[in-house]
C-alpha cells in the first residue's frame, strides 16, 4: 500500500493543462463541428447559421478563447482591420461620419483603428505605417494638409485599398466621398445676398485643403454673380474651431467697413463668433448675420438658431465604408469623386440687415 508520496499527479478529465494555448480545435471538439466552421463563426461569416455562430461564441467565452487575428490574417491574407484617419475627430461632423462608417464596417466584422492626425503629415504617416505593420485590409482617410498624391498612390501600389473622405487630392488613384462644398457655400452666400446684405465676410477654412478651397470658391462665385467684388470683402482664412471663431471677432468688429453678414467655414467657427459678439454687445442676427456649415448637433438650438448647410455626414460615412469594402472584396472602383448634395437650412441667424427676430417660446 502506498502512502501517496510517489504518486504522479494527473490532469482532471476535460481540464486544460496550465499554460497550454487554447485553439479552435478545443471549441470544435466540444461542439462536434469542424475548425473551419468555428473560424467562420468567430468572424461572423454569413456562411454559418446564426444559431451555430452564437454557440461558438458562447463556448469561446466560457473556455476563455481569444481569437488570434494575426494567425488568421496569415491564413486568409485578411486582418479584418480598417484604419480611419481624420484631422479633427472632436468636430461633431466627423464624429457623425465615423459613427456611420463604423456601423457599416462592424456589420462586416471589421475592427477599426482610428487616428486624429490634426493636419500633421508626420502623425498621419506614423499611423499608416502602423496599419501596414498590422496588415490592415484598407484605409479611409481625410488627408492631412500637405499630403501628396504620391503618398496615397504608393499605398495603392502596394495593394492597400484606400478611400478618401471629405477631402480630395488631385492625381490620386483612390475614390473620394465628399460633400459638394462649393455648392453649399454658394447657396448660403446667395441667401444672404437675397436678404439684402452686400458686405459679406468669409471666415475660416484651410485653403490648402479641397474643402477650404471649394467653400471659399462658392462664396466668391456668389458675390461675383451678384456684381459684388470678393476682394473688397473681409476674408479670414485658416480658422477651424470655436476658439478660432472667438479670436476672429475683434478684427471683424474693427474692420474699416464692418460686414453686415458672415459666412463661416463651419458651425464651430460660427458658434465661437456668436458667443464673443454677444459679449461685445453685438447681437448675432440683427447686428451681424451669421451662417455656418455642417448643421452639427445643437445648431438649431442656439439663440438665434443658426442658418447653416446640412452636409449629410451619415451618408458620406456609409458610402465611404461601402466603397472601401468593395475595394477589399476585389472590385475595381472608379477614382472619380462621389459627391453628396448639401441642403441649405435657413434659420434665425441670417435676417435682412437690422431686422430683429422674435424670441422662440419653450416647447
Describe this structure in words.
- With 363 residues, this protein is α/β, with parallel strands linked by helices.
- It folds into three domains: 44 residues, 434 Repressor (Amino-terminal Domain); 129 residues, Rossmann fold; 131 residues, Response regulator (Rossmann fold), CATH 3.40.50.2300.
- It has twelve helices and twelve strands.
- The strands form three sheets. A six-stranded parallel sheet has the order 2-1-3-4-5-11, sandwiched between helices.
- Strand 8, helix 11 and strand 9 form a beta-alpha-beta unit.
- Helix 1 crosses helix 2 and helix 8 runs parallel beside helix 9.
- The N terminus and C terminus are likely disordered.
Q: Span between N and C termini?
A: 89 Å
Structural class category: alpha/beta
CATH superfamily label of the largest domain: Response regulator
Order the strands across the largest sheet as they lie in space. 2-1-3-4-5-11
Named CATH topology of the largest domain: Rossmann fold
Instruction: Give the radius of gyration.
Output: 27 Å
Q: Pick out the low-confidence regions.
A: 1-19, 72-76, 358-363
Total discrete domains: 3
- Summarize the biggest pleated sheet: 6 strands, parallel
CATH C-level class of the largest domain is Alpha Beta
Mean pLDDT metric? 88
Number of strands: 12
H/E series, N to C? HHHHEHEHEHEEHEHEHEHEEHEE
Looking at how many chains there are and whether they match, the oligomeric state comes to: single chain
Q: If classified by CATH, what would the architecture of the largest domain be?
A: 3-Layer(aba) Sandwich
Shape: elongated
Percentage beta strand: 5-15%
Number of helices: 12
Amino acid at each position: 500500500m502506498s502512502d501517496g508520496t510517489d504518486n504522479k499527479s494527473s490532469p482532471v478529465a476535460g481540464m486544460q493543462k496550465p499554460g497550454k494555448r487554447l485553439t479552435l480545435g478545443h471549441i470544435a471538439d466540444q461542439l462536434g463541428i469542424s475548425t473551419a466552421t468555428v473560424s467562420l463563426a468567430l468572424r461572423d461569416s454569413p456562411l454559418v447559421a446564426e444559431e451555430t455562430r452564437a454557440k461558438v461564441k458562447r463556448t469561446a467565452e466560457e473556455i476563455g478563447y481569444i481569437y488570434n487575428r494575426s494567425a488568421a490574417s496569415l491564413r486568409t491574407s485578411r486582418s479584418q482591420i480598417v484604419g480611419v484617419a481624420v484631422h479633427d475627430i472632436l468636430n461633431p461632423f466627423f464624429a457623425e461620419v465615423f459613427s456611420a462608417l463604423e456601423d457599416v464596417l462592424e456589420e462586416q466584422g471589421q475592427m477599426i483603428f482610428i487616428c486624429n492626425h490634426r493636419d500633421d503629415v508626420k502623425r498621419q504617416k506614423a499611423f499608416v505605417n502602423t496599419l501596414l505593420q498590422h496588415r490592415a485590409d484598407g484605409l479611409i482617410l481625410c488627408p492631412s494638409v500637405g499630403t501628396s498624391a504620391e503618398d496615397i498612390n504608393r499605398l495603392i501600389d502596394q495593394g492597400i485599398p484606400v478611400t478618401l473622405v471629405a477631402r480630395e487630392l488631385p492625381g490620386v488613384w483612390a475614390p473620394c466621398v465628399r460633400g459638394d462644398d462649393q455648392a453649399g457655400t454658394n447657396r448660403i452666400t446667395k441667401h444672404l445676398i437675397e436678404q439684402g446684405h452686400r458686405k459679406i465676410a468669409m471666415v475660416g477654412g484651410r485653403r490648402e485643403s479641397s474643402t477650404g478651397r471649394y467653400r471659399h470658391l462658392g462664396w466668391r462665385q456668389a458675390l461675383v454673380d451678384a456684381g459684388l467684388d470678393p476682394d473688397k470683402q473681409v476674408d479670414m482664412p485658416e480658422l477651424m474651431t470655436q476658439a478660432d471663431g472667438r479670436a476672429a471677432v475683434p478684427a471683424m468688429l474693427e474692420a474699416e467697413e464692418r460686414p453686415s453678414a458672415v459666412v463661416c467655414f463651419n458651425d464651430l467657427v460660427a458658434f465661437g463668433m456668436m458667443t464673443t459678439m454677444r459679449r461685445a454687445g453685438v447681437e448675432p442676427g440683427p447686428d451681424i448675420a451669421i451662417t455656418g456649415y455642417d448643421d452639427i448637433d445643437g445648431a438649431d438650438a442656439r439663440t438665434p438658431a443658426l442658418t447653416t448647410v446640412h452636409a449629410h455626414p451619415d451618408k458620406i460615412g456609409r458610402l465611404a465604408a461601402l466603397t472601401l469594402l468593395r475595394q477589399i472584396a476585389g472590385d475595381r472602383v472608379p477614382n472619380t469623386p462621389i459627391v453628396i448634395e448639401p441642403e441649405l437650412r435657413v434659420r434665425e441667424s441670417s435676417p435682412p440687415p437690422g431686422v430683429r427676430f422674435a424670441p422662440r417660446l419653450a416647447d
